[in-house]
Amino acid sequence: MKKPNHEFASRLREALIACGVKPSPAVLGHEFNLRHWGEGISTHAARNWLSGVSIPKTDKLKTLAHWLNVTPESLLFGTEQRLAAEEIKAIYGADSRTISDIDQQFLDNFLSLNKEGRHVLRMVTCAMRHHQSRR
Fold first, then answer.
1. Does the pTM of the predicted model rise above 0.90?
2. pLDDT digits over 87-125, tens only?
3. How far apart are the two ends of the chain, measured CA to CA in Å?
4. Which range marks the domain in which residue 44 is found?
5. 62 contacts: CB under 8 Å, gap ≥ 6
6. How distant, in Å, are the alpha carbons of 32, 45, 68, 83, 118 from that of 78?
7. At 21, which CATH number?
8. Are 36 and 135 in contact (CB under 8 A)?
9. CB-based contacts of 9: which residues, under 8 Å, 6+ apart?
10. Considering its fold, how many domains does the chain have in total?
């Protein structure tokens, strides 16, 4: 029987792949830090998550789940599948990142893209965010 940490690592890798993200420590650390409002993580911490050495604390788990379009419980326990856009809004709507109707439509469109389309749009969005933060 697998240990809970290893099961978490397996579910994290699966969720990353499902979102078109390479499950590598460098990619995970970079992409996570773009999304997390608190203290970021190191590549070493990302490696520990992916290898089952450790499980993220609650605030970081919530960021991972939001980013990967799953619930924190599904990452921890494997109890749920990917969320529909309406469920994302219901869960994270009270967050400071409330989803407007037009953003909801964008998210629905994004979720309907194939793996390659999501990857391209994710890269464009990251580039735009980086460019905007430099101003």
1. no
2. 666 655 545 455 566 777 777 777 788 888 888 888 888
3. 52
4. 4-133
5. 72
6. 21, 21, 14, 13, 24
7. 1.10.260
8. no
9. 49, 50, 51, 52
10. 1
